[in-house]
Amino acid sequence: METTLPRTNFLRTGWNAITFPFRAVAYMGRVVQSDVASVFERDPAARSTFEVLTCYAGLHAIWSHHITHWLWLHRMFFLARWLAQVARWLTGIEIHPGATIGPRFFIDHGMGVVIGETAEIGADVTLYHGVTLGGTSLNKGKRHPTLGDRVVVGAGAKILGAINIGEDTRVGANAVVVKSVPANAVVVGVPGQNIARSTPHRATDLLDLNHSNLPDPIGVLVSTLLQRVEALEQQVHIHDESVPHIHAPEAGLWHGEDFTI
After folding, report:
1. For residues 32 and 102, what is the distance between their CA atoms, to the nearest angstrom?
2. pLDDT by residue (tens digit) across 166-197?
3. In the predicted model, is pLDDT for residue 257 greater than 60?
4. How far is 65 from 70, CA to CA, in rounded Å?
5. Angle at Cα 129 formed by Cα 127 and Cα 54, nearest 5°?
6. What is the DSSP letter of 5?
7. Does the domain formed by 12-196 have CATH 2.60.120.280?
8. Are 168 and 154 in contact (CB under 8 A)?
9. Which of 3, 75, 84, 92 could form a disulfide with 111 if both were Cys (CB 3.0 to 4.6 A apart)?
């Protein structure tokens, strides 16, 4: 007995094929509108929608990634990689087509940003120029970091390996992060030191872009130890002023005979 596909399925399939380009354009229109709005929220230098659409390479790289990621998911690997390479030439930003990126992702300035194949990025994440989301393994599986929602990564920071960066975390400029970070933390240094926030950042708060407010745990530790050593030397009367030694900083300024600048 001969069987055929139901007519309703055929009509539905044909209608979906006809309307797909229109639905894709409508979807991209919503994405562009959301991304442009996120730029005005995070970059005070943005003056007009036309300027944002034409002059923000980070947005161009993200919009290109939407296309290359769709091709990657549909197993058109070479075309996806080739278009990603073209976008890299044009924007200076390298995003592998396999990377998963959430909504309202923003790359400010952008030059030199590298995002690896298995990287996963949550919603409302912000990266600055020179950031690397890199891998540390030759395995084919998960080898790049996962960033939670509302993470901010400062210029030049490197986040390496299949680690998790918790939501509402701020990574300082030029930090090198090689281990997972809990939510609501600040990461500074090489290798990155995780510091809990005294006041947790909430999803309803404004994006935390206060890059000048970064703690220095190693510097504080060294300064505290120097002060403690000087106090102990004075107590036992073994402090010799004639012998040069490192002084603890006063009011944030290092000084004394120990430096030859």
Report:
1. 13
2. 998 999 889 999 999 998 888 888 888 888 77
3. no
4. 8
5. 90
6. -
7. no
8. no
9. 92
Give the C-alpha separation, 36 to 48, whole Å.
10
Which 8-state DSSP code applies to residue 181? B
Rounded CA-CA distance 77/192 in Å is 35
Pair 122, 167: CB distance under 8 Å = yes
Phi-psi region of 126 (alpha: psi -120 to 50; beta: other; left: phi over 0): beta
Distance in angstroms (rounded) separating the CA atoms of residues 140 and 137 = 8
Q: d(Cα 88, Cα 94) in Å, to the nearest integer?
A: 5
**β-bridge mates for residue 94, sequence order:** 114
pLDDT at 112 exceeding the cut of 70: yes
CB-based burial label for 210 (10 Å; 0-12, 13-18, 19+): exposed
For the chain, domain boundaries: 12-196, 216-261
250's tokens = 């006063």
State yes or no: pLDDT of 249 exceeds 60: yes
